[in-house]
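User: C-alpha cells for both sequences below?

Assistant:
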Amino acid sequence: MKFALLGSDDATLRLVQAIAADSAHEVVAVYGAEQHQRTLFDLAPGASFDTDWEPVIHEPVADAIIVARQTPWEDRNDVLRKLFQCDLPLLIVHPACEAIVAFELEMIREDRQGLVLPFVPGQHSAAYRTATQLVSGQQTALGELKQVVVERTMATTSRPVVLDQVAHDVSLMRPFLKTVRRVSAMAPNADATTLADLTVNMTGESGLLGRWNVSHAGQHETAQLKLVGAAATAVLNISADPDQWSLTVEGQSQATETDDPVSDASAMLQAFAQLVEKPTADTAWMAASRDIEVADTVEHSLRRGKTLELHQEQLSEENTFKGMMAAGGCFLLLITLAILVVGSVFEGVQRPLSYRPSEADQTSDTSPDEPADATADAKRPGRALWIRLWPAYPFAIFLALQGFRLVFIAPRATSDKR
C-alpha cells in the first residue's frame, strides 16, 4: 500500500518506521514535514517532498493518507474537511481537532461512507492488549472491575496540552469504562493558564468509576493506568515509547513482549490494511470524537464547578437539519404571536384616532337609525387580500424550507467506488 504523509510528529515517525520495515507498504509522498525532513528522507528515500498537499486528493499518488497532529498549515480544520470529502482512506493521529469539528467530520464521513481510523499511540501495544484481555470474559484475573485510574506526570502543563492529553488517555480508558456518562473536573484555579493539579472524575456504564489526574510536572512523560478489581489490581506503566510499556498484576510481571513482538505502529498498520481490504461499519472516529468531547466537557466543568452529563446523540446531517428546523419553528411561532399582539394593540389605538367621520359626512349620509361609525366603516376602502393574509406568509416560507432536506441529499459512496 502506498502512503502519503501530511505533517510529522513522534507518532507518525513510528508509523513511517513500521512502513519502511514492511515490504508491502511504502511512503511515496511527504507534505509539510520540514521539522523531521532529514529523518523521513532516510526512512523513505523514494518519496517526493513538497509543501502543497492538495494535489494528493486530486491525483492518484497514494492509496491512503497519514495525518499528523502537527501540520504547518494554518487552517487545519479546513484541511481535515477536504480530506474527509475525498475517497482516500485516512489514518489520523488522535486527538486531531476540537469536538465540534470532530462531530462535523463524522457527519461528512457518514455521508460519504469513508474509511477514517484514528491512531491512538499505545492502543495497539502488546502490554495494552494484554490489559484489555484481563477484564474480558465472565471470570477475569482481576475479578469485578471497580475503578479505572490514570495518574500522569507531564513535562508541560499548559492548558491546551493537558486537555489534549486527557482526550488521548480517555481513549485508553474507554475499553474499560465503555460509554462515559458524567464528567466532573477539579483544579485549584479553574481559569489558570496551567493545569498542574487537574483531577477528572468520570462515570462509565453500570456506574464504573474512572479518574484521571496530573500530579506535578516532571522532566519525562510518564503515566500509570490502574485497573482496580475486586480480586487484584493491574498496573500498566506508560512511557513515551508504547513498545516499552509494561504490565504488572499485584507485583507479578506479565510477559507481554515475548508473546507478541509486533510493535504498536506495526499492529496499527495491520489493522488499517485489513479495513481497507475488507471495509466494515466502522465507529472508531465517532468514539474518538466522544473522547475529545470529554476533554471539552472538562473545560466546561471547571468553569461551572459542577458535574456535567454527556448525552450520546447520534449525529447526522439529517438530524442536525431537523433540529434547526424545530428550533426555527418555535422561534417563528413566538415572533408571529408577538406581532399579532402588538399589531392588535396598535390597530385598536389607531382606529379611533384615524377614522373619525366628518360632520358633513354624518349629516348627509347618516340616517337617523344608522350609527355614524357604521357609515364610516362602509365608506372606508378595504385592504387588498394579499395584505390581509400576511400572517400566513412566514409559515408558508418555513414549510417550504422543509423541502431542502430532500434537495441536498448526497449520494452515498459505495465501498467499491472508494
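Moving on to the next sequence.
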Amino acid sequence: MERAALGPRAPAIGSAWLMWGVTCLLFCYGFFARVTPSVIVDDLMRDFGVGAAVVGNLSAFYFYAYAGMQLPTGVALDRFGARRVIATSAAVCGLGSLLFAVADTLAVAYAGRVLIGAGAACAMIGALKLASIWFPPNRFALIFGLTATIGASGAVLGQGPAAALIAVTGWRGIHIGGAVFVFLLVGLIWLVVRDGPPSGAAAPAARPRLLQGLAVVLRNPQSWFIALTNATMVAPLLCFGALWGVPYMMTAYGLDRPAAGLASSMMLMGHTVGPALIGWYSDRIGLRKPILTVCAVLGVASFAIVLYVPGLPWLLVCGLLILHGAVVGASSVNYATVKENNPIAFTGVASGFVNMTTMGISAVLQFLLGWLLDLQWEGASVAGARVYSMAAYQWTMAALVAVSAAAVAVSLLIRETRCRSVA
C-alpha cells in the first residue's frame, strides 16, 4: 500500500492509538495465557494424572497452534482486513480459554490450548499491521517495542499475580475470567478497529504478493540465520520463564507457589523494558549484529549462572533473571534485521517466519524438557503431582543452556545492515 494513498495521519492519531491499544490487549492476554501453566504445573499433573512430559506438551500445544497460524494469519489480515480477522481471532481465543477451564479430559484440555494459541496468533501481527497503516513509518520501531512491552506485561501478570489469584479461584476460575475478558474484548475490537482509510489499496492484490514473498524469504539464508538466532536466544524466556521456572524455584529455594511465580516472572519483568530500549539503542548507533551477539552472550551467561552457581544471594538471582529477560529483548533487533535483509514488500511474511520459527522451536523444547525431567524422576509424589529433584532440573536445563548458547554462534552469521535495507 502506498503511503501517499493514505493521506494525512495526524487527525486520526488518537484513533490509531486506540485501535492499536485494543489489539495489544489481546496480545497481553495471549501472553498471560501462554505462561499460566507455569503456576499450575502441580494442579495439571494432579487433575489429569500425568507427568512432566504431558504437562510440557499441554503447554506446548499453545505454541504449536500459535506458530502454525503465523503465515496464514498474515495472509488473512491483508486479504480480509484487520477488523474482521482480529475480532474473529479474539473470539477463538476466548472459546479456547473457556474450553480449557472446563476440561475434564486431557483431550479437551489440549483442544482448549490449541484454540487459545490459534486465536492469540493474530494479536502481535494485527497490532503491527494496524501500526503500518495508521502510524507514520518513523514510529514503527517504537510501536514494535511498545507492543512487545505490553505482551511481556501480560506474562508478568500470568505468574506471580496469577498464582495469588489461583489460590482463591482455582486454576479453572482464572481461565473462566479470562474467557469473559476476551469475549468483551471482541465487541470492543469490532467497535473501534478499522481496516484503513477508504482510499487504501484493494486487499485481494496482497494474496499473490505474500505467497511470492514466502518463497523469497525462505530462499534467503539470512532469514534462517535471523530466525534461528531469535528462537534460540529467547528459548529460556519461553520455556523456563513461561513454564518450568516456577517448579524449579520451588525446588531450588523452597518457595511457595506465589513467591516462586513472582521470582520466575523476574525474567518477564526484564523483558517489559528490553525490546524497546535495545531497539532504540540499535537505531541510534546504526548497528545490528554486534548488539545481537553481545546480548546473546549475556543471555546464556546470566541463565547459566542462575542454574549452576550455588549459594548466590537471592537479590543477585533476581537481578540476573531481570538482566536475562532484558537482553533477550534483542528480539526487536532480530525483527528489524530480517526486514532489512529482505525486500520491503515482504516485511510481513519475513516477520511471520521469524515468529513461527521462534514459537515452533519453543513448543518442541517444552515437551523435550518435560520428557527429560520424567527420565530423571525418582518416584516421589506429593498430592498426586510428581516431584523432581534439584539434580533432575539441573541436568534437564543443561539442554536449554546449550540451545541458548547456539544463539551466539548463529548470530555471527547474520549480515550487518547498518539499519538500512540491503535486500
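User: Anything stand out in the second?

Assistant: The first helix runs from residue 13 to 35.
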